[in-house]
Write a structure and sequence with these properties.
The protein is built from 15 helices and 17 strands. With 477 residues, it is of the alpha/beta class. It folds into two domains: 290 residues, 3-Layer(aba) Sandwich (Aminopeptidase); 150 residues, 2-Layer Sandwich (Alpha-Beta Plaits), CATH 3.30.70.360. Strands 1-2-6-3-7-15 form a six-stranded mixed sheet, with helices on both faces. Strand 4 and strand 5 form a beta hairpin. Helix 13 crosses helix 15. The longest helix has 17 residues. The chain binds zinc ion (ZN). Zinc ion binds next to loops. The site of zinc ion has 5 residues, from loops.
Length: 477
């Protein structure tokens, strides 16, 4: 057995893309920073209550784009979808070829009440300081939108026209599920008979610097699938009354017990699909000890899964997660609560579905007094795009050309949600990636306090999109 383990560890062949000649593109980083910082100043916030949209902010952002990217607005066809989402059509030379879709979203999450004073720069100030642009949306996701527009403007200035038609789609409600933005745009494509797409590129991956245990240096993590999303409301209704003569279990107690059952009986872990693909790519790059374990999952899988469950971030990659996020009940200390409600948010691992999940939740709670309903813009997990095809290879080649040879690339499972979910099954190649370099703190910055991005990092993203669009000419039909 030891021999098998060693042989398998030593026979791991790298799946990394080969070397490419570097492509240089001059980017005026000062002007880029100014245009980007200006985009940050429009508070295009998606609140939980979607009627609460600041139209003026979105329209201001649109005007800023029109003024900043004149060639894009002269030469591409722009449609506004549900007033606030932007869909640009860049006609290719050969309309018979499958089109490419580049995505991003304009909306941002709110600043969490009470944290305003923790920001070192105002979240919508558009401050540039020491090569860093500060503000809400700097990472998620105005960086994608601006990188795509900047690259397109540069290519148009060069007189470039793509071989295949390229759509740019920037939704306005991604942070609340995206039904009116990306969802509506996906429907429009369907109605017009457009698709399948040769490539769909959205946010959801980055260049992780020193974040993956056992792997040295920078790793481009490319989302090849994303988890599903559902929020179930649990509700217990019944008699109120005086608290001096209570039943053994009040509505609050019944509800609390239900949540306790869900927490104590978690979904079973599973190491497969996109997370397994990640190991396939990273194992050959590890030192011997790592290889010995990960090249021999036939033997060590239970240990690896147990280790992954020990950390919140990696646990999310191997199971459907359970998070009680809202709990309400009771109004006065001496009155029994008439009703109690809670919301539990689940992120669904590919392989499970909304239906199988809801069924299991009912079984685990096993209490008819608890009413269960879906209150979310819920979604099933996406399909898993294969990293073995030409699209993923093109993405890796672009990385080599623009970022260099010292960055590893790996597929992975996006544990959050993106607008790309609306294209599940509408392209064999739905990938989630923008080459912004983030360290361990970067994950917290995206929806957190002091969100910011380095101008150099942003310039890499622009160069990347520029080369990526050029490389779409090389995709097979
Ligand atoms: Zn986002």
């Amino acid at each position: 057995m030891v021999a098998i383990v060693v042989v398998r560890a030593l026979s791991q062949e790298s799946l990394q893309p080969g070397a490419e000649e570097a492509v240089h593109l001059e980017v005026d980083t000062a002007a880029l920073a100014r245009r980007f910082a200006q985009a940050i100043t429009y508070p295009t916030i998606s609140n939980q209550d979607r009627s609460d949209l600041d139209h003026v902010a979105f329209l201001g952002l649109h005007d800023h784009f029109a003024a900043s990217y004149p060639l894009v607005h002269e030469q591409l066809v722009l449609e506004k979808v549900n007033d606030l989402s932007l869909l640009y059509t860049w006609h290719g030379r050969d309309p018979a070829l499958a089109p490419v879709l580049l995505m991003g979203h304009q909306d941002v999450v709110p600043v969490i009440p009470g944290t305003e004073n923790d920001w070192l720069q105002p979240p919508f100030g558009g401050v540039i300081e020491d090569g860093v642009v500060w503000g809400r949306g700097a990472l998620d996701d105005k960086s994608s939108v601006v990188a795509i527009l900047e690259a397109t403007e540069l290519l148009l200035a060069e007189g470039f026209q793509p071989e295949r038609t390229i759509y740019l789609a920037f939704g306005h409600d991604e942070e609340v599920g995206g039904p009116e933005g990306a969802g509506r745009i996906a429907e429009l494509f369907e109605e017009r008979g457009i698709g399948p797409f040769a490539f769909v590129l959205d946010e959801g991956g980055a260049i992780a610097d020193g974040m993956i245990p056992g792997v040295q240096g920078k790793v481009a993590i490319v989302g090849i699938a994303e988890k599903g999303f559902i929020s179930l409301e649990l509700k217990v209704e019944g008699d109120g009354g005086h608290s001096s003569a209570p039943p053994e279990h009040t509505n609050i107690g019944i509800l609390a017990a239900a949540i306790g059952k869900l927490e104590n009986d978690q979904f079973a872990p599973r190491l497969d699909g996109a997370s397994l693909e990640m190991f396939r790519y990273l194992t050959p790059e590890m030192p011997f000890a790592g290889k010995a374990v990960l090249a021999n999952l036939w033997l060590f899988k239970p240990i690896v899964v147990r280790l992954m469950l020990g950390d919140q971030m990696t646990a999310a990659m191997v199971r459907t997660t359970t998070a009680a996020t809202i709990f309400n009940g009771g109004v006065k200390d001496n009155v029994l609560p008439i009703d109690a409600t809670a919301v539990v948010n689940f992120r669904i691992l590919p392989g499970d579905t909304k239906a199988t999940l809801t069924e299991r939740v009912r079984e685990v709670i096993d209490d008819d007094r608890v009413q269960i309903r879906d209150i979310s813009s819920s979604s099933d997990p996406s399909a898993v795009s294969s990293p073995d095809g030409p699209a993923f290879a093109m993405l890796g080649k672009t990385l080599r050309q623009v970022v260099g040879d010292d960055v590893l690339i790996t597929p992975y499972l996006v544990v959050g949600g993106t607008d790309a979910k609306y294209y599940s099954g509408k392209s064999p190649a739905v990938f989630r990636f923008l080459p912004i370099i983030i360290g361990a703190d970067g994950m917290k910055l995206a929806h957190g306090t002091n969100e910011r991005v380095g101008v150099d990092s942003l310039a890499i993203a622009v160069r990347y999109m520029h080369q990526f669009i050029r490389n779409t000419d090389e995709l097979p039909e």
